[in-house]
């Protein structure tokens, strides 16, 4: 597995890097083991401390450029300093991996060597070990890393001599008139040493980690035929079987795993009052400083976005800004993003207020499906279009976040970026962002990506976790109760469970939550259809992708999900009607008089029925036509 050439080369590299202070680990040919000492660990702590101090100085120097207009000469210096900070962060991570628990790291490396030597010749012949490609590939990789590291260290040191000092170097804190040759050479040697130490630390971390992985690959490949099994996973037949199961779900298909994955992705943001427990079997309230901190961050992010958009439209309405300079589609686009942010923020606040009902709905829905499958023998109950929709949401869940983040970095003055409203460099137009530094673009992109990740989680969680899934479980429960009541009339009393879930749903979705959700659905569908039909060629590609995803998701939302909300009402009406025809006992007739059909309320005395879906779609199409006629 590990040839003598590899061991000798690793020994040489570790000896050189430890003398530079880039590595606390050495190799002994006398004992054929890795080891570490207090001296090597002490010396290896010096470069990361110096690098960290350098990064603090660099960040302080460029921080005052974040919110001020930049000159063309400043942009170059800021970008060079920013790239230096990013590269040194990687080096600090590698130093942390090497120094966090060095004795344990050394113990792991020694165990790997001992296992390799023990297995070679005992379990498998030496010929097979030599023939396995992992050893030769590891040797080539280590030589390649050494070549890249040496070249990088030489060229970066030479560039430090040829280039002017950037803002991140401490010598720039001293007035230029006091620069002496000794001071300049001291600064040059200092940063050349840190560059070489950082490169060596990254190389050592990559080399040792790769050596460990090479041992695992050879072990699993030779002894457990792991590589053959790994190839079977990606066979075309498995992919075709997945498509077949998706097109025609087998009887054993359940909603639970799909809804659990989607809800878990949403709850990772901690933007809701509930989260799955560590083992994933229970739904619990948020607790602990980490959860509450992320919850506070999500509320602050949505509140900040809402306030900025609200101030923008307030200025427009008071005549402090002019709408004549922008095309209609641009103002409609800003209005769409403002509506989505405001609606999702309002839904978050209401959900925090009704956290008990939220927890009850999520927990009860999973328990109902589990009981129906294990006790009542439910099978072949999934709706094909609903399964398709859940798979579609899984595939496109992070696409809006990535599209908005990438678009903000590339074009920071284009909505939904707040830069289009708050940055002075964006006043000249959405396409002109020359005065914005690369650091501002990155920070703005991360902020907008997080914002629209929150917006995506709200849409998915409100639809799947606490609306469609409980409604589907109500339909399944009523169907199974009706089936059992045909043989055992006393089973009708289980209908009360569905009524309890209905009351909990209507309590959670009472005004203003359900009207806000329907408003979000209709706004998203109307605006996406309008912008794609009128401004397809004018929109940036990430925004086109974003609105295509929005249009497809909410098209299925209107035609599939809204229709699913009416199925429990239809099934309960049929159950009550059939039960009244079969029941002859006084108790049964009295019980059925108290059993009304299940109705998921829309607010204002209305509820979801068979005509709700086409009525919402007709309303959306009519509004798009009205906008096109403006």
Automatic annotation (TrEMBL):
TM spans (from-to): 46-68, 80-99, 140-162, 182-204, 210-227, 292-314, 334-353, 385-410, 450-469, 513-533, 539-556
The protein, known as: Uncharacterized protein
Signal in keyword set: no
Keywords attached to this entry: Membrane, Transmembrane, Transmembrane helix
Source taxon at top rank: Eukaryota
